[in-house]
Amino acid sequence: MNAGLIHAYLLDGNGRGRRLTWPEVEAWEPVQGHLWVHMDYTDGDVRRWVSGGAGLEPLVAQALLTEETRPRSTSMEDGLLIALRGVNLNPESQPEDMVSIRLWAEESRVISTRKRQLLSVSDLCQQLDAGRGPRTTAGLVVELADLLVWRMSDTVDTFEDTIDELEDRVVAGASGSLRLDLAVLRKQTITLRRYLSPQREALARLMVEKLDWIGEPDRLQLREVSDRLLRHIEDIDAVRERAAVTQEELMSRISEQLNSRMYVLSIIAAIFLPLGFLTGLLGINVGGIPGSENPWAFLIFSVLLAITVAVQLVVFRWKKWL
Q: How far, in Å, CA of 265 to CA of 174, rounded?
């Protein structure tokens, strides 16, 4: 089990947590204090313990071990089954590839499982080691939700900085990889928002759960967390809308450039069309071509072509085509 156990804390009720070994976790009793066990659900020993040794309902055990889950909060008897997600801030990863964490919270125990590392969990461990952590299981759940939302702030700020830069590039007339960059940004914001909306609903559900071990201070903090998450969602929506407008502006500019080039080519083609007709007509290899014996014929013909071009330019100017 040591491989699957990431850490276990026994909360002292004063903000500090003592790390436990697996034998101490197995020997834990509620009278000892509040317990938090955090595990990797892909480990075989963890799956066996959650399914049998933890004393959980089969539905709860299945939810803690499932591969795919969406943010939610469900009350079952005197416990809470919670699934939350945080941005993926691991090296060489994409932030929109969100990392999920599953929790079963009771009055005296919290069991959480994950597959990939979450920096918010590491932040919570540091708080417990420093004596500044939560004092109860309800406080632990709320503090974890708070840290998950705080960790999203840098990602949302990065999105806003990115769209500012892309807008400046469009105004400056630079193109390059703009279309690709805008498409990537829109994909990231859409994917991130896909999970943030149900996560806010899960937090709102937590606020109204009628459980004795969730106190009023915890509900107030949950309200603040939910409001902050709502602001992140609104900021992401704004970035997505700005990206759509920027992409429309980029396509409009590309279309204008294409139309301008096609216009120039059309004018050139219109100018040389009669010239090409005349030169082609006089270039046929048959007898009777006017001026074939006159030494000044080529010069006269060139002057006539120049006059034709001048007349065309005057007509184009009069028609306001130039």
A: 23
**Collapsing DSSP states into helix, strand and coil, what is residue 42?**
coil
**Same-domain status, 57 and 186:** yes
Which phi and psi (to 5°) does residue 117 adopt? -70, 140
Domain presence at residue 38: yes
pTM: 0.78
Which residues form the domain of 205? 5-253
Residues 6 or more apart from 320 whose CB is under 8 A from it?
none
| Helix axes 137-171 and 119-130, enclosed angle (nearest 10) | 130
pLDDT tens profile 232-247: 999 999 999 999 888 8
- Is 109 a residue whose pLDDT tops 90? yes
Longest dimension (CA), the chain: 122
Q: Using CA atoms in the order 241, 246, 252, 256, what is the torsion angle rounded to 10 degrees?
A: 170
Co-location of 178 and 292 in the same domain: no
Q: Residue 82's closest CA among 218, 233, 203? A: 203
